Here is the input.
Amino acid sequence: MAPSNPTGFDKSTLVEASTSRVWQSRDPWARAEQWRYTGPFTRYNRFRRAFPGLGIATVAFAAYLAYEAAFMKDEHHGHGEGHGDQHSGMESPGSAGGASSATG
Here is the structure.
């Protein structure tokens, strides 16, 4: 009967060696790769540095929205009084001579 793998490679031996605690304690590259997960390269620091001005921009935008809501209210817009005569070239819908007059 032919072997299941013609190269002689045993996948279970590789998995056991790469996940065992004994091998991890004897890993010669562990110290060389430790810098990747400490200091400025931690997951939190990498995420924080991906968006450097997001915190300041969010606070500034929220302050602008609060200022606009509190101090920049336009009380004269939308009432419908005083409009029509002040605008040049525009006629109100009920004025005579307009396209919407019902004469004729």
